[in-house]
Amino acid sequence: MKSNHLTAIAGIVALVISGSSRLAPADDPNAEPLWADGAPGCKEIEDKEKVAGRPTTRPDRFVSGVTRPTVTVYLPPEANATGAAVVICPGGGYGGLAIDKEGHDIARWLNSLGVAGIVLKYRMPRPELSKDQKPWPLQDVQRGIRLVRSRAAQLRVDPNRVGVMGFSAGGHLASTAGTHFDAGQSDSGDPIERQSCRPDFMILVYPVISLSDKIGHGGSRRNLLGDKPDEKLIQLYSNELQVTAQTPPTFLVHAKDDPVKVENSVLFHQALQQAKVPAEIQLYEKGGHGYGLGVRGGDVATWPARCAEWMKKLKLAGNR
User: Is the CATH number of domain 3-313 3.40.50.1820?
Assistant: First the structure.
């Protein structure tokens, strides 16, 4: 790792510790690149990142065209820190990222529970350029989890309490991280790559889980795997089919009137139960999709409190 990269990380941590309540813009100057020398397969690609939506009042921006993946770290006050950390995957159908309501807002909420929040700005998939590779978003979330573990001492987090959280297609990405992982490459020259990328717990909010024709989300599948994906890839990344006893404990949230079919969460929960993995599911009659922390009101606005209670039971979160 280059010395200037280490210096940049130290500066990021200092800034976050002193100002975790700030609003981080999509082009956050405090964001850290996942790869110091550029992400695999993207080093020569022209950056065409775009930001749409409101930059002021209550920001709700949508970032697309991401080819330079980053993380932005939010640390809770040291006196309240529990030592847990969560890598946050905003949604957007694998075509972009709802970077505020499913990213930075979530990190600040986690801080109120004493939990470190790490907002992952992951690359959009380019299946035509990444054939025979892991999809780029999966590479990024795995790298993000490894990065947090490798920096556990500086971030004051427990490397055995690093979770992942995702919304919508970001929920698919998070659930992929929880069902497709490895212990790290012990002989790698990159100390980050020596770390495990298995999350210790998952929080999935109105997630896409399946890529099947019956219950999957067609747009997310198309963006992730292309127009005519191989059936083996559809099966591989239909994560309700990939649950094992090693899948981490999971909290799921879904409304029954969500256009992303509620069966995504229900079948994943059933698979977790069959594998004897601790799991909790919160289902709501109404709520639709894309409600973030539930600021629009309604029954779905109770999910953050219920999630906080679940995290407390696992000794991940403290009292607000």
Answer: yes
